[in-house]
Amino acid sequence: MSLELTDVTLTYPDGEDRLTALDAVSLTVPAGCLTAVIGPSGSGKSSLLAVAATLIRPDRGRVVIDGTDTTGLGRAELTALRRTALGMVFQQPNLLPSLTAAEQLEVMAHLDGRSPRKARARARELLAAVGLEGLAGRRPHQLSGGQRQRINIARALMNDPAVLLVDEPTSALDHERGAAVLELLLDLTHQRATATVLVTHDHSHLDVADEIAEVHDGRLRSRPAARL
């Protein structure tokens, strides 16, 4: 199992009391599976993603990433785990305006100490995988919103992560481009055997998911995927 959350509870201070964001949540996402997490605003979707990304430590429960139990890990160990085992696709691509599409990816490999030659080869491979092999030299302002989001996805895959966490990737895209991005995520999940968690408010594209998990008031329940 590539991602496993077991009995995760997360609370925040709320005056003299504490507000429960996640209430004994358990979620297992195996390699090669795309799980969509849905729910109304304020239900706990973002908190679940932050806990899965080890950005927030829960009050109770376990988070296991690619076989590593993160419960007792220190800050430096968690940072190293995120760099090697996690890929994150944010709602906005946040591409650096001065860098080309290829350079957006290469800079991630440089942070890991990989050689420039290997970084260039990996970037070319991933740009081809997301259908942008002919646009490696273009800068963000020369690309469409859908193309920028594809670069965002490719960048998250530079470290060959076991777990891919995706936050509202279609929020700034029209229906057609959003559908294309989600189909791409599904294909990459199956091809590269990542455990993918997709947080989305867009229920019109849920047919791409292998599994669906619904969050309400911090509690999670599974429901059948529409395409099964």
TrEMBL record:
Record InterPro entries: AAA+_ATPase (IPR003593), ABC_transporter-like_ATP-bd (IPR003439), ABC_transporter-like_CS (IPR017871), ABC_transpr_LolD-like (IPR015854), MacB-like_ATP-bd (IPR017911), P-loop_NTPase (IPR027417)
CDD domains in alphabetical order: ABC_MJ0796_LolCDE_FtsE
Domain ABC transporter intervals: 3-228
One Pfam family it belongs to: ABC_tran
Domain of life according to the entry: Bacteria
GO MF terms held by the record: ATP binding
Gene3D superfamilies reported for this sequence: P-loop containing nucleotide triphosphate hydrolases
UniProt name for this protein: ABC transporter ATP-binding protein
Organism for this UniProt entry: Streptomyces endophytica
